Fold this sequence. Notes:
By secondary structure, chain A is mainly β. Chain A is built from no helices and eleven strands. The radius of gyration of chain A is 13 Å and the shape is globular. The termini of chain A are far apart. By secondary structure, chain B is mainly β. Chain B has strands at 5-7, 10-14, 19-24, 29-37, 44-49, 55-58, 61-65, 71-76, 85-93, 100-101, 105-110. Chain B starts with a strand and ends with a strand. Chains A and B meet through strand 9 and strand 10 of A and strand 4, strand 5 and strand 9 of B.
Amino acid sequence: AAGVIQSPRHLIKEKRETATLKCYPIPRHDTVYWYQQGPGQDPQFLISFYEKMQSDKGSIPDRFSAQQFSDYHSELNMSSLELGDSALYFCASSLGVGSYNEQFFGPGTRLTVL
Amino acid sequence: TQLLEQSPQFLSIQEGENLTVYCNSSSVFSSLQWYRQEPGEGPVLLVTVVTGGEVKKLKRLTFQFGDARKDSSLHITAAQPGDTGLYLCAAKSGGSYIPTFGRGTSLIVHP
Lengths: 114, 111
């Protein structure tokens, strides 16, 4: 079965540079979630989109923005990168939103800011 | 303050042993998921429980949701090295569609 696809898998950037992470949800899934996971930490929710509209917002810095496109893929844009932004970034997708909808995670993008 | 408390934080056992990990909270949840995550990889969904007292089995893994829907446990029978990983619980409460994650239990099963 097709899973969530994220690209790139690894990304190395310098401080103050920008980065764009891409997420392709499971086919027919219309909801995308972005998470940040630091070393030894649990995933922290950043932002989510349902049917191309922002549905929830978590602890996403103002330097970050995201959107969901007509084909339901999503991109997380990160500007003015800081050392503390180094982390694993996960995208998850689900069919619809709701208390019982299950999220399926992608393999993640490991971002390293030097 | 962590909404979901997982215990133990670390667990190192020998192949063939049984183990139980816990996920506890003072909040009532509408649904709870268990994930397994390997280093550098995304969490893989193992199970979702929604009904108080519900028990689900996945081969050697048994998941239970507390009667009051505030806690859950994961029991592994005859652990194998392939069970090694970080076990995360995630739960939704109130009207939120975004799950809160616990810090996880890091399990190592030695051959």
